[in-house]
């Protein structure tokens, strides 16, 4: 165990004796203002009015979207308590469009409340309450009575609420939601509590449509539609409730409004309809057949739903050279796609409108792609409906389990995988299931891949996309048996495509490549923090992309059957999309990209280009950092517009031009309209590069406000940066004995006791580095006297160094207190128990030491060092380094 390394002490999340201390900010989240044109039009009266389940649609329904009241309580609370305001359903609480924009902690519950009327029910009718999706656990109450619960953040569900209803008066609906995001057993995808880089803001609570349906007692509850182009037939399994046993199901299949065929038979028995000379569904000809399903009894029609399907087949084929290929309708079709995350700046996981969904899919097809890899998210069903209508092939990722795979996460993942397959089965656009991505939470790959193939043999299974990940042509981690049981061999290569060294006789695909950043000022989620695998100018982007497609064309000749480009739209700090996050600016003209893509894919949009794309603007290729001097001159000539100055400050920071920063900062601060907003304070925090910058005085004028808005951790980070740069580092450069007491006194006078605590921590690590153990013990005690709840350093690792190297019993006694705090608040397996036991042993308290060391071994039964320490304690031998022990 690496307990003696300073590096090990400083790293809080790696190594045997490491743990992940929460550095969560408070419940405020980034007050993002970036908005789409659709989000700007959203109101309580127009938000998501469309019927949400197009594969099984009823005419008799009522929409419950709109303003509900909400409150936040402890997760264990059993009642909602007083309302804390209104929330716009179905937008997640963290989103702008919810009207709240607040994070939900893992130990909190989000309560919703609304009232509704029901149409008078007949004696043979039931009332169903439907939810498109709630992330993650939902408990539902009607008129104070519990009517059911559901677990799973991405699948729809319904509850029969008939028995809890009051027919002649308003009914009260309450929903309690808990969502651990990335701190529980739940599949959470790209949602994390501390977003950044390739991970995004969570979407907690109700995030898809809520609706009511009055249905017959005997009714249709589900359809499973399986086309077979080889047998020229379609099988429709109608699942439902048939209490009499005499009801009959009738299927009417239509094309363009005209009846094609009709079949009938009993409920819950698959019905087969012949489809001779059927028109086939494909990206070029996305032809859909409509289905009307009627449940009939002697008294007439008791229930009726409508659906649709496409006649298509997905299979593994082989070309003349013996390469395995993706076949659609028994013909090879190269799948050229984009990695689509499905996030929005105003609605997060919830698209702002139905029209916005159509825009995204039409934009991707206008770029010249025929495939979408839906990345680690399951969309509302209307997204797949438009993919079906437009003719986009969909590779559907399952939402990954937590990387650490805590107890209970595996069965939950498998339950949600099955729910995803059941929910999306009828969509012809979905052609491939993607089980795992880049080893995130991957386990039992052989078993699970086989299970998915067996459960749905009508689609391809990509058992592990990017199991082999190459960045700048270097493999991140090898795998001895990649893609086991999979139909597909899938590598990721960033930024440039590369050959698969061994496809193991499977279909070769490049599951991800690209990630090219082209910055677009004014359309960024966070102009302080953008990310991509490579950054290019707009002109260079076209050349680089053309080179990538030339490579793909060469790789296709060597067996490549598919490639997925990252990505169609910017997402939060990932600024590597073809279109900006607000869906406003194109970084490469669609006609240009489509022409390049025609090297591999023929055919773009079906019919004329949609008017939805008309609002897009091409990027200004001349507006970049090369205009820095020009803009600086404009500033000196009096242009002090706030947005202009902000951009100029960022240019100066990128060019490391420190001289004009103070003047620019002063001008920016002078014109602020909302000085204490999160966005402004974060920006000031970032451009404040010294204590004489005007931003520093601005932030410290009322440090309580700054700490509250940006978070105490970030605020302290700024202060500590200046303490190091302006006081500690100059003292260290002088050489000789470092007077930490004098440094401490200077810092406390200027920055207060928080700064003084930071000095003791630096003194402690400096002493470790110089092996000044008596001084290290002294500073250890001074630092941890106040720093235990928010230590920058790994408490247990530092305390182990005290145990090994410090003789002072008062310091050792204090170390017991520190390690005990660590055990109670940041469980470290058996490691902290081991440290605790060893300190007792060094203090001469053998019985207490043995008691705790045995507990350590119970916690970590395979830890050889704990076993060895226990044997030494039992034999009365030292467990700390001695002159003799260091020789071994």
Overview features:
alpha/beta, Jelly Rolls, Immunoglobulin-like, 5 domains, 10-stranded mixed beta sheet, disordered N terminus
Q: How would you characterize the overall build of this protein?
A:
The protein is α/β, with parallel strands linked by helices. It has five domains: 6-23 and 714-887, Serine Threonine Protein Phosphatase 5, Tetratricopeptide repeat; 39-215, Jelly Rolls (Sandwich), CATH 2.60.120.260; 219-309, Immunoglobulin-like, CATH 2.60.40; 320-618, Glycosidases (TIM Barrel, Alpha-Beta Barrel); 625-710. Helices cover 31% and strands 23% of the residues. The longest helix has 22 residues, at 712-733.
Produce a short descriptive summary.
The protein has 22 helices and 36 strands. By secondary structure, the chain is α/β, with parallel strands linked by helices.
Work out the count of structural domains. Answer: 5
| Low-confidence region ranges | 1-28
* Major sheet: 10 strands, mixed
State the strand order across the main sheet.
27-26-25-24-23-34-31-30-28-29
The computed structural class is alpha/beta
Q: What is the 3D form?
A: globular
Number of strands: 36
What is the beta-strand fraction? 15-25%
CATH C-level name of the largest domain: Alpha Beta
GO molecular function, one term: hydrolase activity, hydrolyzing O-glycosyl compounds
Keywords: Glycosidase, Hydrolase, TPR repeat
Pfam families: Glyco_hydro_2, Glyco_hydro_2_C, Glyco_hydro_2_N2
Family: Belongs to the glycosyl hydrolase 2 family.
């Amino acid at each position: 165990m690496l307990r003696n390394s300073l590096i090990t002490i400083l790293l809080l999340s790696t190594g045997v004796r490491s743990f992940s201390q929460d550095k969560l900010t408070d419940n405020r989240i980034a007050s993002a203002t970036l908005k789409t044109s659709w989000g700007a039009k959203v109101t309580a009266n127009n938000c998501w009015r469309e019927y949400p389940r197009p594969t099984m649609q009823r005419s008799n329904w009522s929409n419950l979207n709109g303003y509900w009241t909400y409150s936040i309580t402890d997760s264990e609370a059993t009642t909602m308590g007083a309302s804390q305001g209104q929330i716009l359903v179905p937008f997640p609480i963290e989103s702008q469009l919810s009207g709240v924009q607040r994070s939900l902690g893992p130990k909190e519950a989000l309560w919703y409340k609304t009232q509704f009327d029901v149409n008078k029910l007949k004696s043979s009718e039931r009332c169903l309450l439907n939810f498109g999706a709630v992330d993650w656990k939902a408990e539902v109450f009607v008129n104070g009575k519990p009517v059911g619960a559901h677990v799973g953040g991405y699948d729809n569900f319904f509850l029969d609420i008939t028995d809890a209803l009051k027919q002649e008066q308003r009914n009260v609906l309450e929903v309690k939601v808990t969502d651990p995001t990335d701190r529980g057993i739940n599949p959470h995808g790209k949602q994390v509590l501390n977003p950044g880089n390739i991970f995004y803001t969570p979407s907690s609570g109700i995030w898809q449509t809520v609706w009511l349906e009055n249905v017959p007692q005997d009714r249709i509850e589900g359809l499973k539609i399986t086309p077979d182009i080889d047998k020229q037939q379609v099988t429709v399994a109608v699942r439902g409730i048939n209490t009499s046993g005499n009801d009959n199901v009738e299927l009417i299949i239509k094309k363009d409004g005209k009846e094609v065929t009709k079949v009938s038979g009993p409920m819950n028995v698959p019905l087969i309809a012949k489809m001779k000379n059927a028109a086939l569904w494909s990206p070029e000809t996305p032809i859909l057949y409509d289905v009307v399903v009627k449940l009939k009894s002697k008294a007439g029609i008791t229930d009726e739903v409508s659906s649709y399907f496409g006649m298509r087949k997905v299979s593994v084929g082989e070309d003349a050279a013996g390469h395995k290929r993706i076949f659609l309708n028994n013909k090879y079709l190269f799948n050229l796609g984009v990695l689509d995350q499905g996030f929005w700046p105003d609605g997060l996981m919830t698209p702002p409108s139905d029209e916005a969904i159509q825009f995204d899919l039409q934009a991707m097809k206008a770029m010249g792609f025929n495939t979408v890899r839906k990345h680690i998210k399951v969309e509302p069903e209307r997204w797949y409906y438009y993919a079906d209508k437009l003719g986009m092939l969909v590779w559907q990722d399952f939402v990954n389990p937590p990387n650490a795979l805590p107890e209970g996460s595996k069965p939950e993942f498998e339950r949600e995988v099955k729910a995803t397959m059941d929910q999306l089965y009828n969509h012809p656009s979905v052609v491939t299931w993607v089980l795992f991505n880049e080893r995130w939470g991957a386990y039992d790959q052989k078993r699970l891949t086989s299970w998915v193939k067996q459960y749905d043999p009508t689609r391809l299974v990509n058992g592990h996309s990017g199991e082999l990940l190459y960045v700048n042509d270097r493999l991140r981690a090898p795998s001895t048996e990649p893609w086991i049981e999979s139909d597909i061999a899938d590598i990721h290569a960033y930024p440039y495509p590369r050959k698969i060294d061994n496809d193991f006789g499977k279909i070769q695909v490049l599951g991800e490549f690209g990630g090219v950043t082209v910055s677009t000022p004014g359309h960024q989620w966070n102009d302080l923090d953008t990310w991509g695998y490579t950054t290019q100018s707009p002109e260079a982007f076209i050349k680089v992309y053309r080179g990538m497609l030339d490579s793909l064309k060469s790789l296709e000749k060597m067996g490549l059957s598919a490639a997925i480009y990252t990505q169609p739209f910017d997402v939060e700090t990932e600024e590597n999309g073809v279109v900006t996050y607000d869906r406003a600016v194109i970084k490469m003209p669609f006609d240009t990209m489509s022409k390049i893509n025609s090297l591999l894919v023929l055919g773009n949009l079906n019919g004329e280009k949609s008017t939805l794309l008309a609002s897009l603007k091409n990027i200004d290729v001349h507006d970049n950092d090369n205009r820095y001097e020009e803009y600086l001159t404009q500033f000196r000539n009096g242009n002090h517009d706030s947005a202009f100055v902000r951009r100029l400050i960022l240019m100066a920071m990128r060019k490391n031009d420190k001289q004009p920063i103070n003047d620019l900062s002063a001008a920016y601060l002078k014109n602020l309209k909302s000085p204490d907003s999160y966005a402004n304070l974060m920006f000031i925090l970032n451009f404040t590069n010294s204590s004489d910058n005007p931003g520093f005085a601005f932030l410290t004028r009322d440090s309580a406000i700054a700490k509250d808005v940006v978070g105490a951790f970030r605020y302290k980070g700024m202060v500590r940066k200046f303490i190091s740069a302006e006081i500690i580092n100059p003292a260290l450069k002088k050489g000789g004995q470092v007077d930490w007491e004098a440094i401490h006194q200077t810092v406390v006078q200027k920055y207060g006791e928080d700064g003084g605590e930071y000095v003791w921590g630096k003194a402690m690590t400096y002493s470790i580095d110089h092996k000044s153990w008596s001084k290290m013990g002294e500073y250890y005690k001074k630092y941890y006297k106040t720093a235990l709840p928010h230590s920058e350093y790994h408490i247990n690792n530092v305390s182990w160094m005290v145990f090994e190297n410090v003789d002072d019993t008062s310091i050792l006694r204090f170390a017991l207190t520190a390690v005990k705090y660590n055990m109670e608040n940041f469980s470290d397996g058996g490691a902290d128990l081991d440290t605790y036991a060893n300190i007792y042993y060094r203090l001469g308290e053998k019985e207490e030491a043995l008691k705790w060391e045995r507990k350590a071994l119970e916690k970590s039964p395979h830890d050889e060092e704990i076993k060895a320490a226990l044997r030494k304690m039992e034999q009365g031998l030292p467990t700390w380094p001695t002159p003799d022990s260091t020789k071994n």
